[in-house]
Structures are given as C-alpha cells and as structure tokens.
Amino acid sequence: MDLDIAGRWALVCGASKGLGRGCAQALVAEGVNLVVNARTEVPLMQAASELRAYGAEWARARDQKHPEVIAVDCDITTPEGRDAVWSAPGGPGKDFDIVLTNAGGPPTGDWRGFSAQDWQRAVNANMLTPIELIRAVVDGMAARGYGRVLNITSSAVKAPIDVLALSNGARSGLTGFIAGLARSGIAARGVTVNNLLPGKFDTDRLNATLVAAAEKTGKTLEEIRRSQTAQIPARRFGTPGEFGAFCAFLCSPLAGYINGQNLLLDGGLYPGTF
C-alpha cells in the first residue's frame, strides 16, 4: 500500500535501535526523508547506513530520487541536542512533517528510593523534551496544512506497574498534555497528535529486563521468556517491524481522523475493556 508520504520529512528520535529504529525503517521504506537521532554515534551511524539502503531500494523500485537520511548523534533531552537537530546540514530546520518522540525509560525500582533529581531527569526526558520538540514544529505544521506527531510512551500509562514509578508519573504527564493539545484546533489544520503505548516488544531493553529477572529468580533466560510470552494472548513478543508499520500508517493521510489517542500495541495483554 502506498501511504502517500514519500518526500516528506520526519524526525525520529531514538532511531539507532529498537522501536525507534523500526519506525525509521518503515518510514524510509515509504520514501520519507529522515533526520535520525540517538545519543551514541557508532550504532546511530550504522543504523543510518542501513536506512539509506532501504531508501535506495524504495527509489530503485520506483525510479525515484532516494530519500535523505541525516544522522545527528546528540542528547535530544538537552537544548544543545535539539539545536543540533534543527541545524543539521541538509535537514529541514524545524519544518518537519512528522515528528516521533522517543526517549529511553527511566530506571526501575521502589519509588521511596528515588531522589528529586531522579524525578527531574525522568520528567525532563519523558515529558518536557517531547513538549519542547512539539513546541518547535507544531505551528509550522499547521501553517503548511499537514503534520503528524507521535510519542512512544508505554503500556504502563494505561496499566501502571509498581516498579515503574518514574515512568508512570512522567509519561502520564505527557499523556495529559497531548490530550489537551489534540483538542486545541490543530487537527482542523491537518495536524494530529497521538501516543503509541508499546507492550512487550523484542528489543534490547526488553531483553535486559528478562536477563535481570533471570538473575534475580535463578531461572534460565529461556524460562523467563516462556513465562512472559505465556501471559500474552498472541503468545509472543512483538517485533520492531510491526510497531514501525503501525507508526508509518499513523503518519499518513489515511490516519487523518485518528487524533488525541493512546494506542495500545501489546498483543492483547491488557485485560480491560476500555
């Protein structure tokens, strides 16, 4: 299916691996120009090289110019990092059509052990940074008549987990902000904002939590994986490719009537009706 987004510009944060990488791959495979961001240079540059190959494949199949892939290794949670993205040579400045915010989750643990600084870091990364990115681009999107903002948050926003206190709090704050923004009138000007709530996807971050669980319980990693997947109606973990495909659809004109939503992708794990 042609999603009709070829030639648009997207900013994808956390694009060197995992769900951010899956989203970047799905977008470039639709002919979207990318500015990809992550903190660590080597894996980001490797990802960018592979993304260019996907873009070249799209271009060859259609006899089109290949999409641009610009990599900016920086900490997007800092003003300096955001400035580096806006000023990336060859990029669109702040004139993005698509913005995918994505920051790694804060540490897990008993909330009693978290300091004020821990809370401030979590709120900055998982609430304030997405808001700053949106502030920079949303009015331009509305002026041009097209925009898609997607935030990768967490299924814990819908079903909080006790050891994820920092994430529960910070991401819930972002969720409330997005709900208000979505109803501010920007959708009438072609701009939608939505949140993607991933459940258990087969990423490095999930594997690290499974390894930690295995070490804590004395069980093997395979036993932990079987136990975890048995709880999911789909009986498996999701893949970054599946997540990316849904992201690309939401970035397209086909999804123009989806706005202000918290979209849960968890294989049916969440047990509630609403």
UniProtKB/TrEMBL annotation:
One protein family per Pfam: adh_short_C2
CDD domains (UniProt xref): BKR_like_SDR_like (cd05344)
InterPro entries the UniProt entry points to: NAD(P)-bd_dom_sf, SDR, SDR_fam
UniProt record similarity statement: Belongs to the short-chain dehydrogenases/reductases (SDR) family.
Annotated protein name in UniProt: SDR family oxidoreductase
Source organism: Comamonas flocculans
